Fold this sequence. Notes:
Blueprint: H1 2-17, E1 23-33, E2 37-39, E3 44-54, E4 62-68, E5 71-78, E6 82-87, E7 96-104, E8 107-110, E9 114-119, E10 125-128, E11 132-134, E12 138-144, E13 152-158, E14 161-168, E15 172-178, E16 184-193, E17 208-213, E18 221-225, E19 230-231, E20 235-241, E21 249-254, E22 257-262, E23 266-271, E24 278-286, E25 289-297, E26 299-300, E27 307-311, E28 320-326, E29 341-346, E30 349-352, E31 356-360, E32 367-375, E33 378-381, E34 385-387, E35 396-400, E36 404-405, E37 410-416, E38 423-429, E39 432-439, E40 446-450, E41 462-467, E42 475-476, E43 484-485, E44 492-495, E45 499-501, E46 506-511, E47 519-525, E48 528-529, E49 535-537, E50 541-546, E51 555-562, E52 569-570, E53 574-579, H2 582-617, H3 643-650, E54 679-681, E55 695-697, H4 715-735
Parallel strand pairs: 2-9, 11-17, 19-26, 36-43, 45-53
Antiparallel strand pairs: 1-3, 3-6, 4-5, 4-7, 7-8, 7-9, 10-12, 12-15, 13-14, 13-16, 16-17, 18-20, 20-23, 21-22, 21-24, 24-25, 27-28, 28-31, 29-30, 29-32, 32-33, 32-34, 35-37, 37-40, 38-39, 38-41, 41-42, 44-46, 46-50, 47-48, 47-49, 47-51, 51-52, 51-53, 54-55
Amino acid sequence: MSVCLLWLGLSALWQAADIHAAVTIDQVTLTVLPASNVESGTEVIFRCEASVSQSLSQSLTYSFRLLQDDQVVYAENISASVMEHSLSSVRVSNSGHYKCSVHIYNKHKMSDVLSLSVTGLQIPTLKVKSDIVSEGEDIIATCSASEEIGSLVFYFYENDLEVKRVKSNGNSVKTILTTQKVTEIYLRCAYIVMMHSNAGFSNKSNMVKVIVRDLDAITPQISISPKGNVVEGDRVQITCMVKYPSDLELYLTKNITILHKSHTTFTKSLVVRAEDSGDYVCKAEKGSVQKKAVYTLHVAELFSKPILRMSPEEVFEGDRFNLTCSSNVTSSVKIGKADIKYVLLKDGGRIKEDAEYEDTASPATNGKYYCMAMAKEVNKTSSPHDVKAKVPVSAPVICAVDEVIVGKPFRVSCEAESGTLPINYTLLKTHVPVAHRTVVTAADRAIFNVTFISFPEDINTFTCRAYNRGSSFSRTSEPLTSPVIVPVSRPVLETKEDTISEGSDLTLICRVQQGTYPITFTWYHNRVILRPSIKEVRSSEGRHVIKAIKREQRGNYYCEASNYASETKESDPAKIDVSLALWKQAVIGLLCILLLVAIVIVLIFFCKRVSHPRRRKQETELSVKPSRPKSGDPMRISLTLDIEDNTVLNGTPGVMGRNVWSGNASGSDSDDPPDEDSKLVQPQEVGLCRVPVTKSIEHHYSVQHTEVQVSTPGVLEQADGQAALEYAQLNNSEQGPA
């Protein structure tokens, strides 16, 4: 043994030293011998073989595990690569799915699943503790299948009929069987394996005969004395007897009531009444066995059960009422009517020893009344009579259940504070009944539906009437009073003006002709609510001010009005136009003027450009008469000024032409005024773009000139100097030939 332990230790050290050696499990194979389908009792061998590859040639430790339905049933650690496990005698419980697993170092591999099917169950054995029992005695039976393993379910049969089923974790079970039959019975048993119910039932066990003996010895007898006619008030003796009182219980019962209990014979004595008639049972009981005897007793009635009557049947508080108790004599041979005595009781207490009682109805007289009749030790009580004085109805109160809105339906309730149910209610309008209701339970209420009212004052025309004992005792309420809501009329939106200047304040006034306060007004601009614009006021009009209105706020405005009537009315839209501010209008006017001026200047310039070729051909002629002529013919000097050249000299396109002769230009020192005969020819307008030309006639050599107005300042002086120079040159050229 020590050598084995030493070898195992060295093997473990060797494996630990060479833990880095490469090992792989190639395959694990599980086989079963002799076959996978065998009969019960066959020896079966499971063989598990592991195929391993390794880098070093050394001894390995194989950890084998054999599993049945994923539960380990066998395990072994060996150095061999093959493990065998033997089952000497397999049973159905050994059937299942088997697998084999192998562990080497940190390597693990599982075989394929192998199924083992075992057929055939052992025949069970049945035994009983005693095969002769008395009626009602228990039978103790044991059923076993000694060779089976696992959990079993045993079935017990009585005359081939199943009578009991018992589960057991072992292969045997003991149970108690009970039978009520007095006869011979035959018992058998069988079983199934719980985990393998598909294996079916085993064959039934051996048959056991059990004899059940009758227990006539405990059958009782019953007798009643006196025999014959029995009348109420008679005393009778009831005897219950058994011959062999041994370990039993004896009962006297009537219906389901036990009158007496004993273990031996006994006699019960009692004074009977009519309700004591019926079947009396004497019953003997031993274990689960019962034997009984029955006697029927008939008791004649001495007098009838009394009856309590009240007159009148219904009373109200303050009314008088009368109670009367009466009973009839049945057995006139034994008693007379005068022999019956009466007692009146209320809530269990006596109030009068008489057959009649009279009182005034009030809350104090309410209660349960009884009547008792007595004769010859026989007492009979009447059924209870519940006396409860009704309460007259009080004046009802009418009130509105819902909000009252003109033109809409609403509900009113009519309720009396006191009064016995049922109560009849009637709704009246101007004293005319319009609806009826009957209240039966306290949870009910008299609710009336009113279609509508046209005016607020119509609310006071409603009243209600209540009665619970006839219409002659009815009570009427006060007129209905309730706040009445008048819906708002269609509002009107008012503004001070339809057009308003930008930056000004716009006041919107929403006004209604009628409507209960408070009224909620809401304003809208182009179907968009103005915020904040919802105002709840106690007035017929609401105001909304838009501060410093802008151009984009022009458009359609309208308002809505509503109150607690939950009915919203909408006004007609009002179109508001927002004009520009005054300063913006002034700026726009100024811009327009500037635009017009710019347009005129552009047009003038365009016209000049168009007429330029025509002006180029035009000439300006100037005629000069000498102040001292040398001959009779006047001297004319014509000077042609080219407009284009003049424009170039002046550098100003606005100068159309100019007379260059003047007294200063000729170099004369004469300051004499021009001659009276000299005439100034006024310039004539030649179209829109024509330049006027001035002609002058002088009787002297001094030259009178005409000036053309130039739009460009500073150019006039330059043109005058140039013209004077040209005139001097021309004058000298003429004087030379003279």
